[in-house]
From TrEMBL:
The keyword Hydrolase is assigned to this record: yes
SUPFAM superfamilies for this protein: Thioesterase/thiol ester dehydrase-isomerase
Organism expressing this protein natively: Hahella chejuensis (strain KCTC 2396)
Hydrolase listed as a keyword: yes
GO terms of molecular function: fatty acyl-CoA hydrolase activity
Protein name: Predicted thioesterase
Sorted UniProt keywords: Hydrolase
Domain of life: Bacteria
Pfam families recorded: 4HBT_2
Length: 157
């Protein structure tokens, strides 16, 4: 078992990205800036879905994208420059038509604290018009594959 395996994750089998907090990530208070956490959430999301068949090239080919419609963030503790963190993420819902959701947990192994918990909600949009549209089957399959890997049951068709 690795140290990452021993982390108390919120759900099974997270997709994990290590993070090193750098000085430019911090704000005037010396804490990691809230926009930095959002950037990390976006980065881990792309890293998670890319190998599932939802690369940027696939988005461009299909002309569809999952756009964030809402993000809820709970800042539970501060992190600082030189902290070693791990961000875990899970796709937690997909209706197979328009919407999906993702959960995030940022954890600091040095003291065993969860720093951030967040949930983002997405809607599939047409990349040209920006209007909501039905998810391509490739997106639905990728979401289902991820949910099953996380021990979650996708919604039926």
């Amino acid at each position: 078992m690795t140290y990452v395996d021993a982390i108390s994750w919120d759900m099974l089998n997270p997709f994990i990205m290590p993070i090193k907090v750098l000085e430019p990530h911090t704000d005037r208070l010396g804490h990691t800036n809230n926009t930095t956490y959002l950037n990390w959430m976006e980065e881990v999301s792309w890293r998670h879905i890319d190998p599932l068949g939802m690369s940027w090239a696939a988005h461009e080919k299909l002309g569809k994208a999952m756009a964030i419609t809402r993000t809820e963030v709970d800042y539970l503790a501060a992190s600082h420059a030189d902290d070693e963190l791990y961000i875990g993420t899970w796709i937690t819902a997909c209706d197979g038509r328009l919407q999906s959701s993702r959960h995030f947990q940022i954890f600091r192994p040095a003291d065993g604290k969860t720093i951030v918990r967040a949930n983002s909600h997405y809607a599939c949009i047409d990349m040209k018009s920006g209007k909501p549209t039905r998810m391509p089957k490739e997106f639905v399959e990728a979401h289902r594959k991820a949910m099953e890997a996380h021990g979650l049951t996708p919604a039926p068709d």
